[in-house]
Amino acid sequence: MLRVAGLTRRFGEQLALDDVTFDVVPGRMTGFVGANGAGKTTTMRIILGVLAANAGEVRWHGELLTQKTRREFGYMPEERGLYPKMKIRDQLVFFGRLHGLSVGKATERTDKLLSRLGLAERATDVLETLSLGNQQRVQIAVALIHEPIALVLDEPFSGLDPLAVDAMVDLLREEVTPEVPVLFSSHQLDLVERLCDDLVVLSRGKVVAAGPVAELAASQTPTYRLVVDGDAGWLRDLPGLHVRDVAGGTALFDAEDEASAQQILQQAISRGPVLEFGPERVALSDVFREATR
Amino acid sequence: MNDQTLDRPWMLIAEREISTKLRDKTFIGSTLVMLVIVMAAVILPAILAGGNDSDKIAVIDDGGAAVVQRASETQGGEAYEPLRVADQAAAEQAVTNTDATAALLPGPDGYVVVGKDKVDSGVGGALRAAVASVGMEKNAAAVKLTPEQLRAGTQVTEKILEPGPLPGFVADFVNIGLALVFYMTALGFGMMIAQSVVQEKESRVVEILAASVPIRSLLWGKVLGNTVLALTQILVIAIASLIGLTATDQLDILSVVAPVAGWFVVFFVLGFVALAGLWAVAGSLATRQEDLGSTTLPGQMILMIPFFFAVFAGPEAREIASFVPIASSMSMPGRMLTEDVPLWQPLAAIGILLVATVLIIRLGARLYERTLLKTGRRLGYREALALEAG
C-alpha cells in the first residue's frame, strides 16, 4: 500500500499542501481530483521524489519510500516529455533499463508494448515525427515499461479523444496487476467516476474527502426528483426542506431519509397527480462540489 | 533486474550520451573537419618543403658541376642542382631569364658567382664554402694530404649548455597547439553538454529521469560520457597525426612528444571533468536554448582567459599559469614539451588541479541538483547558490 502522510509543502509564502494524508490501495484505482492549483501535481511530484516536502512522508508497505523502491514506480508527469529526436524503440528500451531492466527484458517489453499500442511499425521512427496522440501512447508505455509496482499518472487522459481514452484504459487494466496501486489525477470527473474505486478530493492543499467512491456517494444527503402535473413551487414553502431546484412541475430536493421523502410524496399526491418520483443518482460532480464547497 | 546498470544508472546515462552523439551528423561532421585540418597541418608543410624545387645553378664545366654537387651535399640533400650550359653567355642568359638562380663560372683565381640583380646570400655562402672545400682538397692532394688530414683540427661543433627539447618556433607552435586542443575540445564539448542538459529540460524528459534515478547520476553520466567522447576524439586525431607523420617521414618529432602524452591525458581529463561539471550547471540554469548564451558565459571566460594566457604570456607568467587549475591543463603539457620542467612541478599542478576539480564538481553537483527541475525561468548563478535543496 502506498501511504501519503502529513505532506506539507510551501512555495514561498504560499501553503501548497497542508497535512495531506491518504492511502492508495493495491489493485484499486484511486482518482485524485481537485480544482486547478489544489496541489495534485505537487503531491504526485513529492511521491516520485522530484520535489521535497517541508514535512510529512511517503510510505510503501509501511516503510519509508526509498529511491531504490521508487525506481520501480511508473510515472506519467503532467508535463509530458521524452527525447524528441530519439527513436521510440530505443527510447523505451533506455527507460526500461533506467528503471532497472536488463537489455533483453527491456527489449522484450518494448516490443510487446509497441505492438499492443499498434506502434510496432513506427518503432524506428523518432518520437517527434509521431502524432500527439501517438506520442501520448509512447508516454504511457514508458510509465508501464518496467512492470511498475505502483503507478502515478498525472492527468493521463487529457487531450485524448474518447476512443483513445478507452484504448488507454484497456491497456491499463491489462497491464496493471492486482497488487499494483494506481493513483491518477484528472479533471474529467465522469471518467474518474467510471474508472475509479477510490477517490481523494483535494481542495486548496487539503484533503477534503477520501474513500471508496460508493461510500462517498452514499454519505451524501440523498436527493430526490419529483415531477408533478402542475406547479411544484409549493415545495419551497415547506419548512426545513432543502430544495435544490424547481422548474415548473419538476423539482429536486434533499431529504433527510427515505421516510421524510415519502412524506413529501404523500403531500404531492394529495395536491394532484404525480408523474415521477425517485431518488436521484448522486453524481461524482456533486460529491466533488459538496466536498470542495 | 540483475543488469549491471541497476546500481550504476550513470553508466546508462553515459552510454546514451555517447550513442546519441555518435549518430549526430553535426558531431560526426565537425570531427571529420577537425581531422582534415589536423592532417593538412601535419602533411602540408612537409609537402610544401619537399616539393620546393632545388635552386638551379648554371655551370659550364665539370669543375663547376662538382662544386654545386658539393654545396648541395653540405646542405644535406638536393638544395642545388647544376644546370649545364654551353658557355658564359648562355650561363648569363640563364640567370637573366631566371632559368637559374645563379651561375658559377671559372674566374681569374677560382670562380665567379653570377647573380641577376644580386647574389642570394645563402647561395653565395654555400657556393663559396663548396669552392673552398673542393679547391683545398685538390691543393692538398698535390702535397699528398688526404682530405681527412687536411681537415684535422679544423672541425667546429656546437654545444648548448641549457638545451630546450625543441627549437624555438616549434616550441611556440607546440605550446599554442596543445593549449588550442584543450581549448577547442573543452569549449566544443562544453557547449554540447550544456545543450544536452537544456534539451532535457525543454522536452521535460528530465522529470521522468529525475523520478527514475538520482539527479547526481544524471550529472555523472553526462560528464563521463562526454569525457570519453572527447578523449576518443583526441585519440582519433592523434592517430591521424601519426599516420600523417609516418607518411611524411617526420616520425622523429614523436620521440619528443611521446613522453609528455601521458601527462597531457591526466591534465586533460582533470581539467575537462571540472569544466564539464560547470557546463552542465550552465545547462541546468537555463530553461531554453536561447538562455545558454548568458549561462555559459562564465564557462567561456574560464576557458578563454587561461587560453590567451597560455598562448601570449611570457615564460614567467606561463610558469605561474601552469599551476592554476584549468589554466594548467593548457600550459603545463606545453611547458613540459618545450622546457625542462622539474618533476615536482607537474605533480604539484596535478595535485592542485585534482583538489580544484573535486571542489568544482561538488559545487556543480549541488547547483545541478537544485536547478535541474526548475523550469519556470532562467536562473543566475548567485540565485542558484542561494536556493534550498528540493
TrEMBL record, chain A:
Which InterPro entries does the protein's record reference? AAA+_ATPase, ABC_transporter-like_ATP-bd, ABC_transporter-like_CS, DrrA1/2-like_C, P-loop_NTPase
State the Gene Ontology terms under molecular function.
ATP binding; ATP hydrolysis activity
Residue ranges of domain ABC transporter in the record: 2-229
| PROSITE patterns in alphabetical order | ABC_TRANSPORTER_1 (PS00211), ABC_TRANSPORTER_2 (PS50893)
Looking up SMART domains in the UniProt record yields: AAA
Which keywords does this chain's UniProt record carry? Answer: ATP-binding, Nucleotide-binding, Transport
Q: Does the keyword Isomerase apply?
A: no
Task: Name the protein family.
Answer: Belongs to the ABC transporter superfamily.
Its name, as the record gives it, is ATP-binding cassette domain-containing protein
Native organism is: Kribbella albertanoniae
Automatic annotation (TrEMBL), chain B:
- Where is it localised? Membrane
ABC-2 type transporter transmembrane domain location, by residue? 26-364
Determine the domain of life of the protein's source: Bacteria
Q: Which GO terms describe its molecular function?
A: ABC-type transporter activity
Q: Might you report a single GO cellular component term?
A: membrane
Q: Which residues form the signal peptide?
A: none
What is this protein called in UniProt? ABC transporter permease
Q: Which residues cross the membrane?
A: 26-48, 173-194, 223-248, 260-281, 302-327, 347-368
Per the UniProt record, one Pfam family is ABC2_membrane_3
Q: Which UniProt keywords apply?
A: Membrane, Transmembrane, Transmembrane helix
Membrane topology for this entry?
Multi-pass membrane protein
